[in-house]
Design brief:
Its main location: membrane. GO terms for molecular function: ATP binding; ATP hydrolysis activity; P-type sodium:potassium-exchanging transporter activity. It holds the Pfam family E1-E2_ATPase. There is one protein chain. The chain is elongated, with a radius of gyration of 37 Å. The protein has 37 helices and 29 strands. Among the domains are: 302-377 and 816-881 and 898-1070, Calcium-transporting ATPase, transmembrane domain (Up-down Bundle); 383-409 and 638-694 and 702-806, HAD superfamily/HAD-like (Rossmann fold, 3-Layer(aba) Sandwich), CATH 3.40.50; 416-531 and 539-569 and 587-635, Calcium-transporting ATPase, cytoplasmic domain N. The strands form five sheets. The protein has a nine-stranded mixed sheet with strand order 10-29-28-27-11-23-26-25-24, with helices on both faces. Helix 5 packs across helix 7, helix 10 (303-337) runs antiparallel to helix 11 (344-358) and helix 31 (901-929) packs antiparallel against helix 33 (953-982). It has 1072 residues and is an alpha/beta fold.
Length: 1072
């Protein structure tokens, strides 16, 4: 039994994450995770081939066996001596193995910088920039066009802006040990050549005998060989817990990270003194391995980053392919067949349109802004998101593993019932009937119960609130101990002399083992103060008091106390009655504690003044023969809003599992109250294994192991003991057949295992709630770690999201916002692509393949993508959730893409197929007004020159400049209709207009106005006219595009009507 201690691409990072505290917390998380994995290896007894080496930190630490050696064997192994230490020659030889210095993890800033500058769509922009510069000089000589230089400058500006955003959203600099030197002591006191010496800590070698005293930092990993009786270590840097850890000579755990006969690098001696033999230095120490593991952690893309990268690859491949094809056609055909059509410089500039037209340059900006806007919305709901890119992952959540206390319940416990073997009392009844001065027959057992409840308690009242009523005083301690403390403090039975002040004055605590999640009990040893007289000669002077889970303590009890204070042997029939009482209370949602005691007079080997280490060993060995004083029922009511929140979450297709350390019936009762379990029949492990569905998933891929829609709902409850026996096939049954699961009496290690097993099946995206230090590994391992605002700093550091008000209903907001991000990003891309890529690209296509003049200049293409499109798309980021958003199933992050065939159909064969012909018609209409018909403009190639159709070259150039500006104005006005069309997937604009009503979004008209102003500046700005050949256009071409926008919106409204009216139609199946 384990003993307790005796007394990127889309995210600006959170502020302060690089603080020293953050670094320490990261170390603690890695330490906890390593410790659990080491235990797993021990438990599973994994066998590796002889002599095989592994780089896995857990396996490497598992191979540490120095803590299993006797002290004499330690000296023998390292060829050292307790009195002489290492000789100088041995030190010189061993120093060749390396210094006692922990290497800082590689930062590789150059890789990050390259990713910022060349990542995403930027590498396409670099290609465009380089060839544009070449087209200016030398290919543009002897008369280089200023236009080409202007386009190059604009492309460079796009690169700088995009790189800046990539740097903001993909900042993942290491938060571990920026000042790594502070982890190692500067000097160490050693024994070498029989002399005590002080040497630089960096010069320590394996086998050195190191002496430590109070206040010293441990300079290397040591095997303790001599310890004072009071030596204590502070391991808080590693564990996150402030409890002092005693140093011992003997093995206390097979796990090298948990045993107490090792002193680890960077910990402190806070009491006593000791001597140890160095067994690992520098990077081979435990701290060195943790730092190395932190540095090697690969940056994992979140779901939204994966989707954007997938989309980027598709678009980039098409753009590069078309760019290359355009140049090949010019070189192989156009240059020879139509030598006057395009110069090399002109061909490059026009081919660049394949890159600039096909790439939505504004997308990175839109992604970052969208995530930031949603994060601010969540912050208003007291949900703090540490990494913005994880927001969308919330929308993929398919399993939520929630703890109980303080999350599903209000976290304010109070004692409700007290029971002795033959009597049961409600707390209100006790206060009303037994607190009076004249009560003829108060149960005598209350004396012992009050003693255990008050003296065996880890909670303490804050002295600053001592003047307040008991219920209003501030308490330091966990919720369970706080409830028992308040009850005991208020308990007063004058006729029995039950009174807290007199009890505290009569006894003093001489030893304590605090509660921990593995033992599930707390132990105190108290003795009567010497100045107090013992009224009854039979009253023991010292007591062992124990408080904990009944299922854990019942087997350790041999007697039970009756209400009158007498004691009876605890027979099997009496045990059955007590278990029945526990189950009845638990089924009502009460947490049940057993209060026990044993006289220290019956503990063989006890002597007053024993050292703490020996005392602890003695207590563990004698935790038996207890007298069960009574049972305490504690109620922690479910939060009133949790049932509705669970119902909404489940309706959204998310399975909610409870993972708690409570007794199974208590957990099941709360699970029923909040709606996690709705079935009358709840299977256990035996039922599951005997089910007809036991072999259902044999041989199948893990991704298909999940409950089927036609299976119905099945419920299951498993305890920590059950989890220890589960094989892989059992986990297939657990997660493949059941959608309502309660995991009770679990340890932090089992919580981590639950997370890992759930993630491995059914393409699940797993969220986990937690608040304790021990929850950190599970929070880190989950796809989404959710910490409570009142939780430990280590838990908050491990989590990706923090519920500042500890409110479970905030998770509903988080899921909705995560789905909204994905929905809005989809709308943004759907808005950007038809005009920003497809309609722009058609001008390049007609130029390269059909011999027409370029209908949209490179400048206007880039300008439209990074200004007009971005300004308008911002309004989509402010869209509210659609009515069916929380009725959809969670998105499968592996198979459900941001872009699919329906998406591209909408872009290229629906909206885009309306936009580019409309824009092109405006080009031809203007040319027709100048006397140039359709066949005079298309398939012209090198005929467009001086004298063509009676026009000078300057006139022809002016026609092209005006036509390009008309094309530009047409597409930005058509985007009005495109924007209004994509605001809703199914709902009509009549029910969701942006000016009033439930879907009001005033950013839409603001964006429309802003994009029009940008167009005016482009066309009428004198400087832009001179460099980029923009020019004013006839008034009619400012008005006609409005009709096109209305037409696009109307056609899409008809599509939505068909989808709503005929949901099984072909049109509905193609809907995005």
């Amino acid at each position: 039994m384990q003993r307790s201690s005796a007394s990127n691409y889309g995210v600006p990072p959170s502020q302060g994450s690089g603080s020293e505290a953050g670094k320490d917390h990261e170390v603690q998380i890695q330490y906890r995770t390593l410790s659990i994995h080491v235990d797993s290896i021990v438990d599973q007894k994994q066998k590796q081939a002889g002599g095989s080496k592994t780089t896995d930190p857990a396996s490497a630490i598992r191979q540490i066996d120095v803590h299993r050696l006797a002290v004499d064997e330690v000296y023998t192994r390292f060829s050292t001596s307790p009195t002489v230490g290492l000789e100088n020659d041995a030190v010189q030889r061993r120093s060749k193995d390396g210094k006692n210095v922990i290497s800082a993890p590689p930062t590789q800033y150059w890789k990050k910088a390259l990713n910022y500058v060349f990542g995403g769509f930027n590498f396409l922009m670099w290609i465009a920039f380089i060839v544009t510069v070449l087209s200016y000089e030398p290919l543009g000589l002897p008369h280089p066009a200023v236009f080409n230089l202007g386009v190059a400058v604009l492309l460079l500006l796009v690169i700088v802006v995009s790189a800046t955003f990539y740097a903001l959203v993909d900042w993942h600099a290491s938060r571990i040990m920026n000042s790594i030197k502070t982890l190692i002591a500067e000097e160490a006191s050693v024994i070498r050549d029989g002399k005590h010496q002080t040497v630089p800590a960096r010069d320590l070698v394996v086998g050195d005998v190191v002496t430590l005293s109070m206040g010293d930092r441990v300079p290397a990993d040591l095997r303790l060989v001599q310890v004072s009786s009071d030596v204590r270590f502070d391991r808080s840097l590693l564990t996150g817990e402030s409890d002092m850890i005693p140093g011992m000579l003997d093995l206390t755990s097979e796990n090298a990270l948990e045993t107490r006969n090792l002193a680890l690098t960077s910990t402190f001696v806070v009491q006593g003194n000791c001597t140890g033999v160095v067994f690992a230095v520098g990077d081979k120490s435990v701290m060195g391995r943790i730092v190395a593991m932190s540095g090697k952690n690969k940056f994992k893309l979140t779901t939204v980053q994966k989707e954007i990268w997938f989309f980027t690859k598709i678009v980039s491949t098409l753009a590069l392919g078309l760019f290359a094809l355009s140049l090949i056609i010019w070189a192989a055909w156009l240059r020879r067949s139509f030598p006057g059509f395009e110069t090399a410089s002109g061909a490059i500039i026009n081919s660049i349109g394949c890159l600039t037209a096909f790439v939505p340059q504004g997308l990175p900006v839109c992604v970052a802004l969208s995530l930031t806007i949603v994060a601010k919305r969540m912050a208003k709901r007291n949900v703090l998101v540490k990494n913005l890119a994880t927001i969308e992952t919330l929308g993929c959540m398919s399993v939520l593993c929630s703890d109980k206390t303080g999350t599903l319940t209000i976290g304010k416990m109070s004692v409700q019932n007290i029971a002795f073997f033959d009597a049961e009392f409600h707390v209100g009844e006790i206060k009303q009937n037994l607190s009076a001065e004249e009560v003829p027959s108060a149960p005598a057992a209350f004396v012992a119960l009050h003693q255990v409840a008050r003296l065996c308690n880890g909670a303490k009242f804050d002295s600053s609130s001592a003047h307040l009523p008991v219920e209003e005083r501030q308490v330091k301690g966990d919720a369970t101990d706080t409830a028992v403390l308040r009850f005991a403090e208020e308990l007063s039975i004058p006729t029995l002399g039950v009174d807290t002040p007199s009890l505290l004055a009569s006894f003093e605590k001489i030893f304590e083992i605090p509660f921990n999640s593995r033992n599930k009990w707390m132990l105190s040893v108290v003795q009567r103060c010497s100045e107090k007289q013992i009224d009854l000669q039979s009253e023991p002077e010292r007591w062992m008091l124990v408080k904990g889970g009944p299922d854990v303590l019942f087997p350790k009890c041999s007697e039970v106390m009756n209400a009158d204070g007498t004691v009876s042997p605890l027979t099997q029939s009496l045990r059955s009655k007590l278990f029945a009482l526990q189950e009845r209370w638990s089924s009502e949602g009460q947490r049940v504690l057993a209060l026990c005691r044993r006289s220290m007079d019956s503990v063989v080997g006890f002597a007053p003044g024993m050292v703490a280490n020996d005392m602890e060993d003695l207590m563990y060995a004698n935790l038996r023969g207890l007298t069960l004083v009574g049972l305490v029922g504690i109620r922690d009511p479910a939060r009133e809003d949790v049932p509705d929140a669970v119902r909404i979450i489940r309706r959204a297709g998310v399975k909610v599992f409870m993972v708690t350390g409570d007794f199974k019936l208590t957990a099941l009762a709360i699970a029923r109250q909040v709606g996690i379990v709705t079935q009358e029949k709840v299977d256990n492990l035996k039922d599951m294994r005997s089910s007809d569905l036991a072999k259902r998933y044999a041989g199948l891929e893990p991704s298909v192991i999940k409950p089927r829609d036609d299976d119905g709902v099945r419920a299951l409850i498993l305890t920590g003991d059950d989890i220890e026996t589960l094989e892989e096939a059992d986990w297939d049954m657990v997660l493949g057949n059941y959608s309502e699961i309660v995991f009770a009496r679990t340890t932090p290690e089992q919580k981590l295992r639950i997370v890992e097993q759930t993630k491995a099946r059914g393409d699940n995206t797993v969220a986990v709630t937690g608040d304790g230090v021990n929850d950190a590994p599970a929070l880190k391992a989950a796809d989404i770690g959710v910490a409570m605002g009142a939780g430990s700093d280590v838990a908050k550091e491990a989590a990706s999201m923090i519920l500042l008000n500890n409110d479970f209903t905030s998770i509903v907001v988080a899921i909705e916002m995560g789905r909204l991000v994905f929905d809005n990003l989809k709308k943004v891309i759907l808005y950007l692509m038809p005009a920003g890529t497809y309609t722009e690209f058609m001008t390049v296509f007609c130029n390269v393949f059909l011999g027409m003049q370029l209908a949209l200049s490179s400048y206007l293409q880039v300008c439209f993508s990074i200004t007009n499109d971005v300004v308008m798309s911002i309004s989509l980021m402010y869209e509210k959730p659609e009515s069916d958003l929380m009725l959809r199933k969670p998105r499968n992050a592996r198979t459900d893409r941001l872009t699919d065939w329906r998406f591209f159909f909408q872009i290229y064969l629906f909206i885009g197929l309306m936009m580019w012909p409309c824009a092109m018609s405006m080009w031809f209409l203007y040319m027709d007004q100048q006397g140039l018909g359709f066949h005079d403009v298309i398939l012209v190639y090198d005929k467009w020159a001086e004298g063509y159709k009676g026009y000078t070259l300057d006139q022809l150039t002016h026609f092209v400049n005006v036509g390009q500006c008309i094309y530009y104005v047409t597409i930005f006005f058509m985007q009005y209709g495109g924007l209004l069309a994509v605001r809703n997937r199914r709902v009509s604009i009549l029910q969701s207009n942006p000016l009033w009503g439930p879907r009001r979004n005033l950013v839409v008209p603001i964006g429309m106005t802003a994009t029009a102003l940008i167009a005016v500046v482009n066309l009428y700005g004198p400087g832009l006219q001179q460099v980029f050949d923009t020019t004013p256009i006839p008034g009619m071409f400012w008005g006609i595009p409005f009709a096109f926008a209305l037409g696009i919106l109307t056609v899409d409204e008809v599509r939505k009507l068909i989808v709503r009216t005929y949901p099984n139609s072909f049109v509905a199946k193609m809907a995005w």
